[in-house]
Specification:
homodimer; alpha+beta; Hypothetical Oxidoreductase Yiak, Chain: A, domain 1; Ribosomal Protein S8, Chain: A, domain 1; 7-stranded mixed β-sheet; 4-stranded antiparallel β-sheet; 20% strand
Chain lengths: 387, 387
C-alpha cells in the first residue's frame, strides 16, 4: 500500500478471481476490521436491535470481509439498512423452535435478520450434536444470512463437522428452463484438522457467482458460454441477455457437462431449507434487495436455511479423525500439478489466505462501498471516519 | 421388440443419454426382472452368503436394471463373482456397530458385499431417524454398494428423507491436478411426494459417468472438452488420453465453470464416507474390479459409505411437507422451456420412466452381459436360460 499524491490510499485490492488472488490497483481505502465491525453493530443497534444480536450480525459481515468475499460483507450493509428502514426486517424477532424431535428441529426466525437468526439456529444444531451425536435445524421466516461458510466455521471451533445451506431469490434456471426458478442456493461444510487448518467448502450451486456477471456488465465484456442463458433459454456470452429476462445456469451448465447435477443440488438445498421448514421455495423466495421484485405468490414464510452439526466422537476418535484430515490435506497438496498450474488447492485455502492478510493489513473497500457507509453515517449520525 | 430372422430378439435398448431415453437397436435379449433377481441371488448363495443377504444383494442390482442404470445392475454380477471367487469379499461378514451416539453410528462391514452392508447400515440410519428425528451412519470396511439411489428410495418408503454417499476407486483429478485422486463419489437424496412420485437425486460428482467415456473408446469417437484430462492435466477430447495416465474431471470441469465445486463435493463425500468411518480415503480406496490396481498404501479399512435419514415429522407435518413437494413438482414442471427442449425434468424422472417400462417389459441385456451371466452359470451350474 502506498499513499498517492493526493494523500488518499492506493489500495491493492485482493480480489478473488479463480480462487487466486490477483492484485488490482483501485482507488479506495483500507479499514481495520474492528472499525467496520463496530460501525456495523452500531447501525444495527440504531434500529433497536439488541446489542448482543447487533454484534453477532456485525461479526458475520466482518468474517466475509476478512475472508475476501467482498460481496457479502459491509458492501451489503446498506441493503440491510434499507430493509430495516422500510420495516421489511423485524429488529426484535422472537426466534423460537416451533417443532422438535431429539436431533432435529424447525426454527421460526420471526422475520429477523438472517445474520441473527442463522447463528441462533446454528447454535441449536451444535448443541444437539453435542448431546445426541448430530443436530439438524431447518429455519423458516428468515432473511439473507451472509456467507454460508460462517456457520460450519463456528462448528469447527467446537470440534464438530458443520453444514449450512440457504435458499435465495430466484436467479438460476433449471437445466432446459428459460426462466429463473431457483436461487444460487449455497452449500457449506467444514471438517476440522489437527495441526492443519480446517477443510472449508462454501460453494453456490450455480456455475458462477452473480458478482462475476455484474463485473462483466460494468466492463461491457463478454462472459464465457455456460454462465447464463437468454430469455429463450439459449446460451449467450452477452451478460446483458441475463438482465433482459435471462437467467444464470446451474453448476455443470449444460446437459453434456452435468448441468442436471447443479440443478439437482440447487433443488436439494431448496427443499431442505424451504419446503422442510415452511418457508418460500423456488421462485417464491422473497428478494434480499429493494430493486428486486417481490413474488406475487407466497407459499410459506420468508426464506429458509438448513444447518447441520455432527459430533466426530460419535463416529470415531476425534483426534484420529483430525490427524487423518491433516494427512488428507498433505496427500492432496502433493497431487501432481496440471501443466501451467501450481496444483490443486485445499477447499478453503483462498479464503484463509485472505483472512491472514486482511486481519493484519485491514479490509480494502472500494469507493462506492465507502460512499454507501458514509451515506448510512450521515443518515444515522453514527460516526464513520475514512482515514 | 421383434423377433429377427434367426429367432433371437432384436432388442430396443433404452439407454440413458442426456436424461432422455433414446431407442437403439442392438442384438441382445430381454429378461423378466424376477429371473435376473433369482439368478443373482443364487450366485451369491453359491458362495455361502445367507439367503436373506443374497436376496437383498440381488434386489439392489435389480433396482439398478429396472431404473435403466445398466452399468450398475447384473452387468456387474461377474465382477462380484470374481471378487467372491478370489476371496476378496467376505461372504459371511459380521456387520456391526463399532461406535455410536444417539443419532449417529459407525458400522464396520467386515469386508462384506456392499450390497449387503449398505442396506444394513441404511436400516440403522432409518431406525435412528424414527427414534431420534435423524440417523447418520458412516461405514468402513465395505465394498461397492450398487446405485446410491437405492438407499434413499428405501427411506422414502418409510416416509423419511434419505441420503446416501460412497467413495470409490480413484478416477477423478482434483481441479488443477494431473492424476487420479478421488472416485466418482456419488451423492443421492430423495424426498417423498404425496400423490406425486418422490424427487430422487442420484448423481456422481464427476462431470460425466465413466461409462460414457468407455462408450466413446469403443466407438473410437471424440469426447467433449471438459470430461477428462491427459497425463499432464491438459484438456483433451481423445478418450484414450484418459486411459493413458489421464483422469476424469470433477463436475464443473474447469475453474471458470466451477470445477473447484465438483472437486469440493467429491472431497466432502470422501471425508464423510472414509475419513469419518476409518476407511481408505482419496487415492487409497481399493478397487472394485480385478483389472484395477490395488493401491500400495492403505490408510484404513475397505472403502466407505455414508447414510442419512431424517424424519419429516420432526420438522414439519408430514402430509403438509409431501403436499408441498407435489406443488414444487407442479411448479417446476411448468417452467418455461428453453427453446428446442421440452423443459426441465424433475430429478428422478428418467429412472422412474425406465422402471415403469422395464418392470412390465423386462430388462434388455446386451450380448456381452448375457455371455457373462452364461459364464457364471457354466461355472456354478446355476441354470440361466436365454429365451
Amino acid at each position: 500500500m502506498e499513499r498517492d499524491r493526493r494523500g488518499s490510499l492506493t489500495v491493492v485490492v485482493r480480489r478473488k478471481v479463480g480462487k487466486i488472488f490477483v492484485a488490482e490497483q483501485e482507488k479506495g481505502s483500507i479499514f481495520p476490521i474492528d472499525c467496520l465491525k463496530d460501525f456495523s453493530a452500531k447501525v444495527f443497534m440504531h434500529f433497536g436491535i439488541a446489542e448482543v444480536d447487533a454484534r453477532q450480525a456485525a461479526d458475520v459481515l466482518a468474517k466475509s470481509d476478512l475472508r475476501g468475499i467482498d460481496s457479502h460483507g459491509v458492501a451489503r450493509l446498506h441493503t440491510y439498512f434499507d430493509m430495516l428502514t422500510l420495516g421489511r426486517i423485524n429488529p426484535k424477532p422472537n426466534i423460537k423452535i416451533v417443532r422438535e424431535k431429539v436431533s432435529v428441529a424447525t426454527v421460526d426466525g420471526d422475520n429477523g435478520l438472517g445474520l441473527v437468526v442463522g447463528p441462533r439456529a446454528n447454535e441449536i444444531a451444535m448443541d444437539k450434536a453435542e448431546k445426541y451425536g448430530s443436530g439438524w435445524v431447518s429455519v423458516c421466516h428468515t432473511n439473507h444470512f451472509g456467507i454460508a461458510g460462517y456457520y460450519p466455521l463456528k462448528a469447527v471451533e467446537r470440534d464438530l463437522i458443520g453444514w449450512a445451506m440457504t435458499n435465495t431469490t430466484k436467479l438460476v434456471a433449471p437445466l432446459w428452463g428459460a426462466e429463473r426458478m431457483l436461487g444460487t442456493n449455497p452449500i457449506a461444510i467444514a471438517f476440522p484438522g489437527y495441526k492443519e487448518p480446517p477443510v472449508v467448502i462454501d460453494m453456490a450451486t450455480s456455475a458462477v457467482a452473480y458478482g462475476k456477471i455484474e463485473m462483466a456488465l460494468r466492463k461491457k465484456a463478454k462472459i464465457p458460454r455456460g454462465w447464463v442463458v437468454d430469455k429463450n433459454g439459449g446460451m449467450t456470452t452477452d451478460p446483458q441477455d441475463m438482465i433482459d429476462g435471462g437467467a444464470q445456469l446451474p453448476l455443470g451448465s449444460e446437459r453434456e457437462m452435468g448441468g442436471h447435477k447443479g440443478y439437482a443440488l440447487a433443488a436439494m438445498v431448496d427443499v431442505l431449507c424451504a419446503v422442510l421448514s415452511g418457508a418460500n421455495w423456488g421462485p417464491f423466495a422473497p428478494p434480499f434487495a429493494l430493486r428486486q421484485e417481490i413474488p406475487a405468490r407466497s407459499v410459506g414464510k420468508g426464506i429458509g436455511h438448513f444447518f447441520g452439526a455432527m459430533q466426530i466422537d460419535g463416529f470415531i476418535d476425534k483426534d484420529e479423525f483430525k490427524k487423518q484430515i491433516d494427512e488428507w490435506i498433505h496427500v492432496f497438496r502433493k497431487t501432481k500439478p496440471a501443466a501451467g498450474t501450481n496444483g490443486p488447492l485445499i477447499p478453503g485455502d483462498p479464503e484463509r489466505e485472505a483472512e491472514a492478510i486482511r486481519s493484519k493489513e485491514g479490509i480494502p473497500l472500494l469507493k462506492p462501498v465507502v460512499d454507501d457507509l458514509l451515506d448510512i453515517s450521515r443518515r444515522t449520525r453514527i460516526p464513520f471516519e475514512v482515514n
